Amino acid sequence: MQAINIFLTDRLGEEITDFMHGETRYAFARLYPDGPHRLVEGPVCAFVDWVMEDLSGLEMCRRLRADKRTAEAHITIVLDEDDAEDKRRALKAGADDYILGPIDRTAVLDRVMALQWGGAQTSVSEILELGELTIDAAALQARWAGRALDLRPNEFRLLRFFAQNPDRVLTRADLIAALGKQEPPIDERTVDVWIGRLRRALRAMGAGDRVRTVRSLGYVYDSH
After folding, report:
1. Which tens digits make up the pLDDT trace of 20-71?
2. Distant-in-sequence, close-in-space partners of 71: CB < 8 Å, separation ≥ 6
3. Distance between CA 80 and CA 101 in Å, rounded?
4. pLDDT tens per residue, range 129-148
5. How many other CB atoms are there within 10 angstroms of residue 156's CB atom?
6. Which residues touch 22 (CB under 8 Å, ≥6 apart)?
7. Phi, psi of 105 (to 5 degrees)
8. Please, is 73 exposed, middle or buried when counting C-beta atoms within 10 Å of its C-beta (0-12, 13-18, 19+)?
C-alpha cells in the first residue's frame, strides 16, 4: 500500500481524516514552522498558507526545500487573493503551484489526486545516513557500521523517525502520532516496549545507548 503525506500549515491539517483510495492512503497532518512532526514515508504534498502566524509562506517554502524530508515535496501556496505578483513570488520561493484559499478537504484531495504519482517517486531519500547509522527505506533495512539491525516493523519505523529528528526530545504521544498509531488508541507504555527492543538491537551492533530517556519528557536519539 502506498502512502501519500499531505501536510497543511493550516490547523485544518489536524482535523481532516485520512482518505483511502484503492491501494493508496492519503494521510493528513499539520505542518509546523520546523517541519513535519511525524514520520515521513512516501511522497509529500504541502499546502502552505501565504500568511502564517510565525513566518511567511515564502519562508516556509524555503525551509521545506532545505529539509531533506521535504526537499522533493510538491508545494502548493494557498493565496489570500488572486494576485499575479504573489504567484510569481511563490514560484520563485520554491512552490510548484498555487491555489486561492480558503481550502477544504475536497479541494486538497482534488489537487493531490490530480497529480501523477509514479511508483519510483518518494519523498525522502531512499538512503538516510546519520553517522554510523544507515537506513534503506526501499529495502526496509537499517544498518549500523554496515551490519544489519534485527528490527521488527514498528522498531524500524521508530528508528527511521528518530533519524529524521535527531537530538530532539520526543514524547510517547509524539511517537504514537508520528507512526500513525492513534487509531485504534493504544497505551503509551507500548512505546516503552518498542524502545526497549530498539535499544537492544542497537547495543547488539555496538551502537551503545543512542536512545536516551529524558525524565518526565520522553526520548531522544543522540546523533553524537
Report:
1. 888 888 999 999 999 999 888 888 999 999 999 889 999 999 999 999 889 8
2. 64, 65
3. 6
4. 999 999 988 788 999 999 99
5. 18
6. none
7. -60, -45
8. buried
C-alpha cell at 66: 532545505
Contacting residues for 186 by C-beta, under 8 A, at least 6 apart: 176
Q: Whole-angstrom Cα distance, residue 84 to residue 104? A: 23
Half-sphere exposure (Cβ direction) of 98: Cα atoms closer than 13 Å:
22
- Average pLDDT over the chain, rounded to whole? 88
| Predicted model pTM | 0.73
How far, CA to CA in Å, does 8 sit from each of 31, 57, 131? Answer: 5, 11, 31
Nearest to 172 by CA among 214, 202, 207: 214
